[in-house]
Amino acid sequence: MSQLQHAMIILSKTFNDYAGKEGKKDMLNKGEVKTLLEKELPSLLQEAKNPGEVDKFMESLDLDGDSEVNFTEFIILVARVACIIHFYKK
């Protein structure tokens, strides 16, 4: 298996590990998103200076406005963070 294939499997598994703990099994609610970010991307939350910034960030993930984050919206988050890492780690 290639590194990219492996990375995609890990992304899918990570989403599934957090989704559905409190709500729908294929969606992340606000609490699940917060837990995922705290455990998987802790520096992202540490950079936020106040809780309002975190709430705005979480709302920005919810592209369809259903108050949940689906897998596509999660992948957009991952892509955003990957772009930041790519451009600022040069």
Summarize the SSE layout with pairings.
Blueprint lengths: L2 H16 L11 H11 L1 H6 L3 H11 L9 H18 L2
GO molecular function, one term: calcium-dependent protein binding
Keywords: Calcium, Metal-binding, Repeat
GO biological process, one term: endothelial cell migration
List its salient traits:
Recoverin, domain 1, 90 residues, mainly alpha, 69% helix, S100_Ca-bd_sub, repeat, calcium-dependent protein binding, calcium, globular, single chain
Explain what the structure shows.
The protein has 90 residues and is mostly helical. The protein has one domain (3-88): Recoverin, domain 1, CATH 1.10.238. The protein contains five helices and no strands. The protein starts with a helix and ends with a helix.
- Order of SSEs: HHHHH
| Gyration radius, rounded | 13 Å
Which CATH class?
Answer: Mainly Alpha
Broad structural category: mainly alpha
Biggest sheet character: none
Mean pLDDT: 86
Low-confidence stretches: none
- Total beta strands: 0
Count of the domains = 1
Question: Do you know the CATH topology?
Answer: Recoverin, domain 1
The name of the CATH architecture is: Orthogonal Bundle
Summarize the structure.
The chain has about 90 residues and is mainly α. It has helices spanning about 5-20, 30-40, 40-45, 50-60, 70-90.
